[in-house]
Design a protein that fits this description.
The complex is a heterotrimer of chains A (250), B (177) and C (353). With 250 residues, chain A is of the alpha/beta class. Chain A is 37% helix and 17% strand. Chain C has 353 residues and is α/β, with parallel strands linked by helices. Chain C is built from twelve helices and 15 strands. In chain C, helix 1 packs across helix 2 and helix 9 packs across helix 12. Chains A and C meet through strand 1, strand 2, helix 3 and helix 5 of A and helix 3, helix 4 and strand 9 of C.
């Protein structure tokens, strides 16, 4: 039986995330990928703004904390400064799909050789549960108290679909962490996204459908069910682009 | 010559900025103090263009030429706009091919130079600016043709050496007019 | 000394930056500073450097943050509206104690304003300009040579103090050509043990961060930063004193208006009016001491600026209201003429205003 131990690329700091939040799982998957590729000593994390703002406390690598939405631009600077470093951003949906839309689209267009971990839980967690660019139609949040009305506030942003039309993007996959099978797939995708960077293959993004029991007003278990019943149907899982895969485009 | 403040003005594309740059480099090579300040903005894209050039024996304060000693006008709007700003006793050089109008001021010295026609006749149609500049060098005390080769060598890139002779010819033509 | 060549101020900034060891430039086109970007786009690829035209000013300054956090020299340049967009990133640079060189070739404002030269970003530059308690070192060149020299110095100061150093120029300074020889540039190397270079699994990780959720920590951080600013104020003030020995009237002016003022001073002296000038070269730290000392000797100050009167407030603070301070200004892209400044001098000399 395999021994369970903490990845080296995680610090000993206790995570501040709410009970049942899946950020912890995703942190672990990222750290495992770093360990497995043996890149801890040359990895640099770009933390964003949102629940994962303090990612720099948890990843045991050099870290820079970016302004809201700007992580891909900061990562561009870090990577261009020394292309031998492994540079990744860890961004939420408000950060990446709202205030930082321009930065993510243009980093992809430039095929920046970076890895983006995009955590989509359809809500602004850190500020207490406001509507996100990825909040589902009809979903109630603090700033959409009658449910998201697409006629007045528009439709959710499907980032993998959108970025798949950007010629520069090399690898885009959407995964979820609501059950063991999906967590395994998520691990594979994250490892692939880091491997791409190590091999100089260019812009790789993994969108992770995540839960927010606290702000969804659900128990952790019900929140995971909601991923399956509501989130995944709107945000279908799968590889949206992999230019190096067999039959891959572009 | 303590300080000569010059204003070159005309249409974008007439080589106004280049003529100014030529004079500035001429001053630099002759170990004078110089400054060159172009107009910039939308007028660079097809409208009017002008540049201020100061050549001086002393350090230059403001690089802005509000009251030129020398005005080179290569189109009518420029002459109309700047005629009154020339200092009394100053010199105005008019491209008489493009400007029918005579200078109204009587307290300045005026030189009418058919620069554009001459350039066209010589098949160097784009170099009316340098014909005007040649005339200017002739008429301003203290300016000589001696350094022309060196100046052209500085401002014409090696790729365009054919332009060297044409520019020199234009300057000499202007100087002889 | 190498041979002098004619260069635009914007080009002189770019070349001096390269000579000062800057190999990373991020920018976005805006008049009247675009020559900086154009120059960099030509030169950087040939010397193994990086030129990147970002998708926005915001992205550009964040790319600057990225490179600076790895310990390398980096710059961006823009003009007024673009600098407003960069302001967020400038605050983060300050909050992370990251060095960087930011160039503002000013144009008239507010809003989209105009494209003609202006000094109306004085407040923005010298008072921080974005949110939070912080300062930038602000250098105000008054010639093409100074555009080059102060750019090189700016990189050294930025590294030495881990601060943003801003070159506050204007459209005239950027567009004009003067003879310049860009040599004798000294790169003052400093150790950057804080830089993100990868831990190599041999040292504790470095964190570049401006977030302090505990107010006690943030307060302490700000106290530390302001202790550093005090050192800068004590050691880095630069100014030019022009004809001040016997002056009855002191002009305070920087950049292009200082040059216009020199013409006016020469003209005024020809009329027997004893006028001189203190030209701040560092706008922050502001040359408070020489201005206070001048207050005991002159009968009045004239602040000559291309805005509605911004630096005049710092002049009044510096001389502690000992003598009256008058404003001679144009704004919106208009440049005062030497005659206008002379008229102001004559008025003040005659006791009017």
């Amino acid at each position: 039986m395999a021994e369970f131990h903490k990845p080296k690329a995680l610090t000993d700091a206790p995570l501040h995330y709410c009970p049942g939040c899946t950020h912890g799982i995703i942190h672990r998957l990222v750290a495992e990928a770093i360990d497995e590729l043996g890149i801890q000593g040359r990895s640099i994390c770009v933390a964003s703004v949102g629940c994962s703002v303090m990612a720099y406390d948890y990843f045991d690598v050099d870290c820079v904390q970016a302004a809201h939405g700007r992580a891909p631009a900061v990562a561009t600077g870090v990577k261009r400064s020394d292309p031998s470093k492994i540079v990744f951003t860890y961004q939420g949906d408000g950060d990446l799909a709202s205030i930082g839309t321009a930065e993510i689209v243009h980093s992809a267009a430039r095929r920046e050789n970076i890895t983006v971990i995009f955590v989509n839980n359809a809500i602004y967690g850190m500020t207490g549960g406001q509507m996100a660019p990825t909040t589902l139609p009809g979903m109630v949040t603090q700033t959409s108290p009658y449910g998201r009305d697409v006629n007045t506030v528009g439709y959710p942003m499907k980032m993998c679909e959108m970025l798949s039309k950007v010629d520069g993007a090399a690898y885009l996959e959407r995964v979820a962490v609501n059950n063991v099978a999906n967590v395994r797939k998520a691990k594979k995708a994250i490892l692939h996204a880091f491997t791409n960077q190590v091999e100089g293959k260019g812009f790789s993004l993994v969108e992770v459908i995540s839960s927010c029991p606290t702000n969804w007003g659900k128990s952790p278990e019900k929140a995971l069910e909601f991923i399956q019943t509501d989130m995944i149907p709107y945000y279908p899982l799968g590889v949206y682009k992999d230019i190096y895969a067999e039959g891959g485009k572009n | 010559m303590a300080t000569t403040r010059m204003l070159f003005a005309g249409f974008g594309g007439q080589g106004i900025l280049f003529a100014g740059k030529f004079m500035a480099y001429k001053g630099l090579i002759e170990e004078k103090q110089v400054s060159w300040l172009p107009s910039y903005g939308p007028e660079m894209r097809g409208g009017t263009a002008n540049c201020n050039v100061i050549i001086s024996d002393d350090p230059i304060g403001s690089p802005i030429v509000n009251k030129p000693d020398v005005l080179v006008a290569m189109n009518l709007p420029s002459l109309e706009k700047f005629e009154d700003s020339v200092v009394p006793g100053g010199k105005i050089f008019v491209d008489s091919t493009l400007i029918d109008k005579k200078v109204e001021r009587t307290d300045v010295e005026v030189f009418y130079v058919p620069a554009t026609k001459t350039a066209n006749d010589m098949n160097i149609g784009t170099l009316a600016n340098m014909i005007m500049t040649g005339k200017l060098i002739k008429e301003i005390p203290g300016f000589e043709m001696d350094s022309v080769d060196k100046v052209l060598g500085k401002i014409i890139s090696a790729r365009h050496q054919d332009m060297f002779e044409a520019n020199k010819k234009a300057l000499e033509t202007g100087y002889s007019m | 000394m190498s041979e002098k060549v004619l260069m635009k101020g914007n080009e002189a900034i770019a070349e001096a930056a390269i000579k000062a060891g800057c190999r990373f430039y991020f920018g976005y086109p805006i008049t009247p500073q675009t020559e900086v970007a154009a120059y960099m786009s030509k030169r950087m690829p040939k010397i193994g450097g990086t030129f990147l035209q970002a998708e926005s000013e915001i992205a550009a300054i964040n790319m600057v943050i990225g490179v600076s956090s790895t310990g390398k020299r980096v710059m961006t340049s823009s003009s007024s509206p673009g600098v407003s967009l960069k302001s967020e990133g400038i605050s983060y640079l300050a909050g992370c104690d990251l060095p960087a060189l930011v160039v503002n070739v000013q144009r008239g404002g507010p809003g989209l304003g105009g494209i003609q030269p202006s000094q109306s970003d004085y407040f923005q530059a010298t008072k921080g300009g974005s949110h939070g308690d912080y300062h930038n070192i602000v250098l105000a060149p008054s010639s093409v040579s100074e555009m080059a020299l102060l750019t090189a110095k700016g990189f050294n100061l930025a590294d030495k103090y881990r601060m943003v150093c801003m070159i506050l120029a204007d459209g005239t300074m950027g567009q004009m050509m003067e003879p310049v020889a860009i040599d004798d540039i000294v790169i003052e190397e400093v150790e950057k043990p804080w830089a993100l270079t990868g831990t190599d699994c041999k040292r504790p990780r470095n964190i570049v961060n401006s977030l302090y959720l505990k107010p006690e920590e943030l307060e302490r951080k700000n106290f530390e930063r302001f202790a550093k600013y005090k050192t800068v104020e004590e050691n880095e003030v630069l100014y030019e004193s022009y004809m001040m020995e016997d002056a009855d009237i002191c002009i305070v002016s920087f950049g292009i208006t200082a040059r216009v003022s020199k013409n006016a001073i020469v003209a005024a002296r020809a009329k027997g009016i004893k006028v001189g000038m203190i030209r701040p070269i560092t706008l922050w730290p502001f040359p408070k001491k020489p201005i206070l000392e001048a207050a005991d000797k002159v009968k009045a100050f004239i602040s000559v600026e291309m805005n509605m009167g911004q630096m005049i407030q710092d002049v009044e603070l510096a001389e502690r209201c000992k003598k009256p301070v008058y404003l001679c200004n144009r704004t919106g892209g208009m440049i005062p003429s030497p005659e206008e400044v002379l008229a102001s001098i004559e008025k003040v000399n005659g006791g009017e205003q």
